[in-house]
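Moderator note: this is an archived Q&A kept for reference. The question asked for a predicted structure of one protein chain; the sequence and the answer are reproduced below.
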Amino acid sequence: MGRLHVPPPAGTAQREASLRSPSRFLRNWFSWHRFAVTVARASSLRSPPAPPPPAGRRGSAYTRNYIAHWTGKAGDAAGAIAAFEELLSDEERVLGADHPHTLETLDALAYWLQKAGDAAGAVAAYEQLLERVLGALGPDHPEALTARGHLAFFQGESGDVAGAIVAFEELLSDEERVLGPDHPDTLTTRLRLSRWRGEAEALGLSGPNEQESLSIPSARPRIRGAGQGCPRSW
């Protein structure tokens, strides 16, 4: 499943302008690449190439997103969470709760909550995100299906194995109908459903009718990163 990408609503260019005025010491893009490299090296991380700016996002909003991401990658998940929470509050105020940049930030916040061990907080953030995506795009939009997959994953990680199984079963049925049985997202959901059915069986929770698990040993979901610069790419 890819990163959430929601098309921007019309008429938001002027509101975005207020987030595009970086302060004097933030104006040089390459200086911030050097900053990220310094943070990465200081934390014994391999220095990555500078990621491209998110489409349509420029100035201080992008810089704050970029710094929040690399704060987390440097090992400070709590700092990343605080930075993304502040950015989310500002974007909700300036851009609106359903703007794609706001949704991307909420998406990143959920990721870092999970990375910090707060699976319940991640579930709450994704429930909020899913509600907004469903309202903006409808239940059969691919991004809505992606959000449902992320929420189901976080449900399992929070300890709600039975809830994760039910969510993945419902998602699989809808993805087969909307995307087709051979779509990569559909196959990923099958693998994740297999993983959580295996978890349920190990815990003695599986029922007699749960039969369609795939016998693939590497069925554990793969998380790529969150926020821009990493992004919540799943």
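Archived answer notes: The chain has one domain: 23-202.
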